[in-house]
Amino acid sequence: MSAILEGTPDKRLALVTGRAYPELANEVAQYLGINVLPTTAYDFANGEMYVRFAEPVRGADVFVLQCHTNPINKWVMEQLLMIDALKRASAKSITVVAPFLGYSRQDKKHQGREPITARLMFDLFRTAGANRLVTVDLHAAQEQGFFDGPVDHLTAMPVLIDYVRSHVPMDKATIVSPDAGRIKVSEQWAAKLGGLPLAFIHKTRDITRPNHAEAHGIIGDVQGRDCVVVDDMIDTAGTICEAVRTLRNSGAASVTLVATHGLLSGPAVERLRDCGTREIILMDTVPVPQEKRLDNMTVLSVAPLLAAGIRSVFEEGSVATLLEGLPEDMRPRNIYA
Question: Which residue numbers are catalytic?
Answer without folding.
Answer: 203
